[in-house]
Amino acid sequence: MKKEIYITDYNCVTPLGFDVDSNWKALLAGKSGVALHKIIENQDAFYASVIDSEKLDEEFDRVFTQNDGVKFTRLEKMLLLSMKPLVEKHTITKDSALILSTTKGNISLLKNQTELPEGIYLSQLAHKIADFFGFKTKSIVVSNACVSGVMAIAVAKNMIQAGKYKDAFVIAGDEISEFVISGFNSFQAIGSEPCKPYDKNRNGINIGEAAAAVYITNGHSDEERISQNEKCRFKVLGDSAINDANHISGPSRTGDGLYGSIRNAMIEAHVSAEEINFISAHGTATLYNDEMESIAFSRMELQNIPLNSMKGYYGHCLGASGLLESIISMESALQNTLLPSKNFEEMGVSQPLNIIKENQSATVRYILKTASGFGGCNAAIVLEKC
């Protein structure tokens, strides 16, 4: 029999706040981090969700009063801040894993450089975080485009079930950079206004930045369950990741990869479409992604399940998005409140979806979290509130 795997703690650092409580209050009030920002010199401002660097530095200096003079990049500060509360509550042992989800890591270090700085390597970034907190195991990097955050949870689940680790600290982060903005702009994928997932008048994404962290453990013993004094407890019931092999940037028109990922995750979870209470979808507000998702959800007979996208609040946070959105989903379940898909007004996809339009009370037991990304990657997990 497979070990039961639980998420028992989480935290996040975003433009809406540097902990879950401040984020939740902002979300309940309908606040968004998306605003116009000047990111590239000699170019117009872009709509993006950006963390205030001055506030970030102040919070980092407040929390980490002693860091032995080690210098950290902006992204590293975001990651360390998101992770600190979890490390304080859960002991790192010789059997604890550190799993980092990111797409670009310290990509900003490349600016105006003629040689590759050491910190640009994702493995080096993970090692620096692991070394700071004193991990004994070799850190793991999950970098698979925009499904990375969801896959990192799956990797933790499967490795703990396989007996490789007793528990795992999963962290995720990406920051706004000229490189990322320029790349998406070259696709003409960036919206000229705050993004509108699934809306008829959507015209592209907003890039965002965030860091997030969750603690995942094997909950096989009653003694462990009691001793952890958890504020939350969510079982990771099922997971799957499938590549649709359609195009380097364009999603499958038939939704095959996402459909297969959802189907496999739900089969492993032993949960039917009728039992899912809430879907935290990817919802980038691009023409083809949103349409593909609607087809995949319809094929799985999930068209009546309440659904939202968090991109209207946070923008697309790349490697952090899947983990951050999973955290907000779990907080929604704990608070018995579903959040609207911000900026949605009129259905703009071919298949029906039950898109949440206002804060609503709900009893949530089963959550489906999905993600899709460049290269045809798709991922899904099923979570159960215990």
Question: Can you walk through the features of this model?
Answer:
It is a single chain. This protein has 386 residues and is an alpha/beta fold. Helices cover 32% and strands 22% of the residues. It contains eleven helices and 16 strands. An eleven-stranded mixed sheet has the order 5-4-6-8-1-9-16-15-10-11-13, with helices on both faces. It has a three-stranded mixed sheet with strand order 2-3-7. A two-stranded antiparallel sheet has the order 12-14. It is globular.
Helix content: 25-40%
For the biggest β-sheet, the strand order reads 5-4-6-8-1-9-16-15-10-11-13
The main pleated sheet reads as: 11 strands, mixed
The coarse overall form would be globular
Average pLDDT level: 94
Unreliable stretches covering 5 or more consecutive residues: 221-228
Based on secondary structure, the structural category is alpha/beta
Count of individual beta strands: 16
Strand content: 15-25%
Amino-to-carboxy terminus distance: 19 Å
So how many helices? 11
Please identify the oligomeric state: single chain
Report the order of strands and helices: EHEEHHEHEHEHEEHEHEHEHHEEEEE
From the alpha carbons, calculate the radius of gyration and give it in angstroms.
19 Å
Summarize the structure.
The protein is an alpha/beta fold and 386 residues long. 32% of the residues lie in helices and 22% in strands.
